[in-house]
Amino acid sequence: MANSQYQTWMCLICGYIYDEETGSPEEGIPPGTRWADIPPNWTCPECGARKDDFEMVAL
């Protein structure tokens, strides 16, 4: 993979952080899952916001 750096995404509604490196195993998303590979109907596990309500952040 050309760009192996993982990105972090934050829910603009509640502040939940999705980290591509750790994934969200409790939601069925394994570690290393890229944001683009998460299904479009996935919602924030904390508040139910859509993927459109997330923004990439640098932590």
Automatic annotation (TrEMBL):
Keywords: Electron transport, Iron, Metal-binding, Transport. CDD domains: rubredoxin. It holds the Pfam family Rubredoxin. Pathway: Hydrocarbon metabolism; alkane degradation. GO terms for molecular function: electron transfer activity; iron ion binding. It comes from the Bacteria. Binds 1 Fe(3+) ion per subunit. This is Rubredoxin. It comes from Zoogloea oleivorans.
